[in-house]
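Example (one chain per record):
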Amino acid sequence: MAARLATYLVVLIVAGTLIAGLIVGAQRDDDSGPVDLIIHNAKVYAADDLGSVADAVAIRGNKILKVGGEREIMRYKRPQTTVIDAKGAAVLPGFDDAHVSLVAAGLARDGVQLFGAATLDDVHERVAAWTAAHPDAAWVTGGGWSYDVFADLPLRTELDAATGDRPAQLLSHDGQALWLNTRALAAAGITRKTRDPKHGVIVRDRRGDPTGLLKGAAMALAEKALPKPTREERARALQLAIRDAQQRGITSVQDVGAASGDLDLYDAARDAGTLSLRVYAAVPAARTTPEDLDAIAKRYPDDPLLKTGLASIALDGSVESQTAAMLQPYTPKGSAEGDLRMPATELGKLVAMLDARGWQIAVDASGDRAVRDALDAFGAVAKNAQAVKAPRHRIESVTAVDADDMPRFGALGIIATMLPLHASGGLATWARNLGAERAPLGWPARSLSAAGAHLAFGTDAPRLPLDPLAGLRAAVTRPELQAPEQLTLKSAINAWTSGAAWASFDEHRKGTLRPDMLADIVILSTDIFAAPAKLAAADVVMTIFDGKIVYRRAS
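Predicted structure:
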C-alpha cells in the first residue's frame, strides 16, 4: 500500500512539474522571443470601441505583440530591438483610405493642384505657374477647383489666358465637371452641333456655343482626346501613389475607382514585392459580366495584401454640379432634381444579382433621392444585419440624407462611406444650390453615427488631396453652417481606421492596435488629443507597414 502511495505521489509530482513548466513556458514565450520594434513615450490610441489609450507598443514580426504601459512594454527590449521614442505624440493604427482611385492619383500627382485656391486670380496664378514650369507638356491637366471662385460658371475664355496655345482640361473638386479652354474643346471636337450624351451636359451660352464646362458623362468627350498612359506609366504611377500614401500615414486603401487593368497592376506589384500597402479593389458592376465577376472573385480571394469582393455602382453625381439626384429640385430658378443614372428597377435587379453571388456592393449615391433608392435596393435583399456573414453593403460619397432614411442605415447594417474634405470647400455653391433649409444638412456624419450607421472615411483622391489628416481635421472642425454634424476626435479617427477595416471585412486583422493585429501604425508629430491646435499642426512622422518602417520624415 505504501509503495502504491509512493508511486501516486511521484506521478503527481512529475505531472505538477510538467504543468508548471508549461505555464512558465507560456508566460516566458512573450519575454523570451525576439521583439523587433518598440514604440514608447507615446499617446497610443487603439481605435477600439472602448477608446483605449496606452503608452507604448511592442511589435514582433509583422504583428503587434502587446500594447500597454511604459514599464510593461520596455521590459521586452532586447539588444536587437529597434526602439522609437514618440516624444509624447499620438500613435494610431495606419490610416485606411476607404474611397480612393490609387493609380489615378499617381497619374494626377504632377498636374495643376487647385484644391484650396480661394479666388479666380489664385487659380490663374497656379495654372500659369504650372504651364511655365512644364514647357514640354502637350496638355495642361490637373484639378481641384471649386465653383465658389467663379461669379457664375467657369468659362473657356477664363482659362485661355493662363494656358497659352496648349489645350487644357481641369477636373472640379467634386469630380463631376471638367473645365476646358478653347484649344481643348477643338481637340475634342466639341462644337455647338455636338449633342449632350445621356447623363451628361455640355454647358452652352445663349448662342448655343460650348462655354468650356462639361458635366457628368459629357466629360468623356474630352477625356478621350487625352493621350492614354501606357501600362509602364500606370505601373510607375502606382509606385508614386504608394510612396505618397506612406508619407500620409496610409497603410491600406479601398480602391473604388479601379480602372480596367488596375487589378493586374496590383497583382504584378504584389509578385514583385513592391505592393507595400493593403488593397481592397472594387470592380465596376455595370461594365462586368456575371461570369467575369465570378472569375475575378476566384482570382483575388480574401488576402491580407490584395483582394476584391466589392462591386461598385455609380448612381448619381454631386450637389455642387447639380448632378446629385435629389428628392426636391435644386433652388436656382429652372433647376431640376439632378441626374439619376439608373432607374430604381434596374438598380434593384443589379443589386439582387450581385448580392446573390456574394459580392459586397458599394453604391455611389450623393443626393437624398439616390441614397433612398440605394437603401430600397439593399432593403429588398436584406439579411440579418447582425449575422456573422452579413453583406455589409455600402453607400459611397454620402452627402445628403432625408431624415426618414437615417434609421435605415443602422437597421439594414449599411456602411456610410463619407469624404470629409468635400465638406471643407464649395459650401457657398452648396448653399446656393440647396437653399437655406437644406444647406445645413450636408455630410451628416454625426446623425448617421447616432442612427447606427458604420462610418468609413476616404480621401477621394485624385479629386481631392491624398491626405487623411486633412480629412480628420475637416471631420472634427466643420464650418459653422454644418457644425452640429462634426464628430469627436476619437470617432473621426475610428472612421479612418477601425471603421474602414470593418467596411472591408478586415476588422479581425487590422484597424485597431491590440495583440495579434497586423503592425500597421502611424506616428504623428504631436499629441493631437491635447488640444485642437495640436491637431491643426500635426504631421506624419513615421509610417510602419507590416512591422517595417516604410516612411520616416526627414529631421
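Caption: The radius of gyration is 26 Å.
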